Amino acid sequence: MAEKTLAAAAETRSKSKIKQSPADRAFVICNTIFLTLVVALTLYPILNQLAISFNNAADALRGGIYLWPRMWSTANYKAVLNKQNLVTGLWVSVERTVLGTVLSLFVTALLAFICSRPKYLWKKQMNLFWVITMYVNGGLIPVFLLYRDLGLTSSFWVYIVPGLTGAFNMMVIRSYMENLPESLEESAQLDGAGYMTIFFKIILPLCTPVLATVALFIAVAHWNSWFDAMLYNRMNDEYTTLQYELMKLLSAATTASAGGSYGQKQTSNMITPASIRAAGSILTMLPIVCLYPFLQRYFITGMTLGAVKE
Asked: Phi-psi region for residue 20, left (φ > 0), alpha (ψ -120 to 50) or beta?
């Protein structure tokens, strides 16, 4: 019996190979070559910056560094890590990323749940209102004056409160929720469940893929943000962020390079804007690169299911 099963399996495999036409084989080959080129083009900028960051800054000025350092050096990372207020900025960035992601995800999911309910009276008006906010804003000065009057400037909460929800993230979660069967909510209501119970015990567990996707969007935005720190907490080092400190370091290196060198006067230890930019990019990229593999499967599912409504 086992021999017959193996023979049948081998025959099935041989038939599947025979049925593959030359056009199918050509498509597989072309698809493999194309995806290989896409991966190479995607990885090359990262590997190039990694090589420059570990290369001697003075030697990097000669160019010709692609995927491997020509003269190994860790001076670039030492210059970045020795930056004043870098540790403070790192902790503030971590705090705003974690707290901002959790609070923003909860508020956005709750708003999406309200806007996705068929029985909500102002559903169309509310959705239209949020779409308008994607194209119209009050401007930089009115927003700054508003935050100042609300007491948000020179405080940590200026990073959290204004970005508690966003129109794009809300619409992604809303589209996902609208694809869920209405019978789940109806059966829960027959058992006496209220809207908050339905939201926490039924909707949220089913929305794990899209919530993970939006959480990645929010976390990356918080982690990479530096303009709000410059605008609202420029004179307060207590609430500085990692990206803002790196931006100041890069600006100082760029300004100093116009009149000579940055850092030590010895040419062998010179630090250039390009080397600072490369080392800072690698350091700030690491947390997101480490986080993304754990959310990749949710990211793909959340985007495909939350983007189309049948």
From this structure: beta
pLDDT confidence band for 259 (50 / 70 / 90): low
Output the 3-class SS for 244-295.
Answer: HHHHHHHHHHHHHHCCCCEECCCHHHEECHHHHHHHHHHHHHHHHHHHHHHH
What is residue 148's DSSP assignment?
H
pLDDT of residue 101: 94
- Domain spans of the chain, in order of start: 2-53, 76-307
CATH architecture of the domain with residue range 76-307 = Orthogonal Bundle (1.10)
Q: How many CA atoms lie within 13 A of 267 on its CB side?
A: 5
Average pLDDT over residues 213-230: 90
Secondary structure element (H or E) that encloses residue 141, with its range: helix 140-149
Q: For the whole model, what pTM was predicted?
A: 0.77
Q: Which residues contact 44 (CB under 8 A, 6 or more apart)?
A: 67
What SS3 class is residue 299?
Answer: helix
Quote the percentage of the chain above a pLDDT of 70.
84
